[in-house]
Amino acid sequence: MEGRTFLVTGANSGIGRALAEALAARRARLVLLARSEARMMPVLEGMRARFPDLDAMFLHADVSDLSSVRRAAESFLATGRPLDVLVNNAGVAGTNGLSRDGFDLTYATNHIGPFLLTELLLSRLRASAEGRIVNISSMAHLRPKAVDWSVLSRRTVAKRSGFADYAMTKLMNVLHAKELARRLAGTTVTTYALHPGAVASNVWRALPKPLQVVLKLFMLSNEQGARTPLYCATAPELRGVSGRYYDKCRESRCNPLADDEALGRELWERTEQLVAS
Asked: Per-residue pLDDT averaged across 217-235, rounded?
């Protein structure tokens, strides 16, 4: 991994932090994106203490806020740094709020913001000899039987998003990766979507505290949850493989909806309109 640059979103905690630490141990260059500098800097300082030669920078952004995503992308591109791998890790479940742009917070954080970030950084990824885009999805994406496009509409009144909303955003992550693979065919950039396992990460932060405590008793550690993202981001045997879905570091069956090319194209076009407006 030495000499390759990885940008990881949601890097201050959970799977993102565990993945960043695993990459740092492999001498990768890191760009760590997070909403809170106050929470990110102690993590980064701790990593620098463990890995004195670490080449890492902090990038501030709230992926649910499209203006924040644009500023972060502009800041990164202005550095002139290369980018070899983008890991869209930041996510949330069970929210009860709207983004600054008026979208349901779960959809803004898990799909719309990452879609825009990927678009803005794509030129830098295409310049890599082996660019990769890794979307951290979930086996929850298997649940939806159809797509209701109204979930992507702007709103004026917030409502609590349930597991069905979380599952829909995770299906969108897989659809996004597969549509990207089709659009990037013939380039040096490949894409992956994956289930990290049921992980006791900060993705559950919007749920009531007592429920979080009970759920996390039965979940994997963040380090365990980082194994499949690390595999998709780095495994040499995946070179040239694109648009697949993984679980436990192996290719796995995905929701049949995710293989619907018309659905992937429609998601792309609808989301492109949202971020443009």
From this structure: 85
Q: Which residue has the tokens 């559950």?
A: 204
Which residue is it, tokens 């992507």? 152
Distances in Å between the alpha carbon of 254 and those of 18, 138, 266?
A: 25, 10, 19
Strand 244-247 and strand 250-251: pairing? antiparallel
The pLDDT assigned to 200 comes to: 57
CA 235, CA 126: separation in Å to the nearest integer? 19
Domain parsing of the chain, residue ranges:
5-276
Give the span between the Cα atoms of 253 and 142, in whole angstroms. 9
- Can you give the pTM of this predicted structure? 0.92
- Given pLDDT bands bounded at 50, 70 and 90, which one contains residue 97? very high
> What Å distances lie between residue 101 and 66, 114, 152, 172, CA to CA?
7, 14, 11, 19
Residue 11's pLDDT is what?
94
Cβ-Cβ contacts under 8 Å for 46 (sequence gap 6 or more): none
For the annotated catalytic residues, the residue numbers are 166
Cα–Cα distance, 218 to 214 (Å, whole number): 8
CB atoms within 10 A of CB 241: 14
CA–CA separation, 68 vs 74, rounded Å?
10
Split at pLDDT 50, 70, 90, the class of 152 is very high
Closest by Cα among 147, 180, 7 to 90:
7
Percent of the chain surpassing pLDDT 70:
92
Beta bridge partners of residue 104, listed in sequence order: 98
| Other Cβ atoms closer than 10 A to 148 | 10
What's CA 195's distance to the chain center, in Å? 12
Nearest to 201 by CA among 180, 215, 183: 215
Q: Assign a CATH topology to domain 5-276.
A: Rossmann fold (3.40.50)
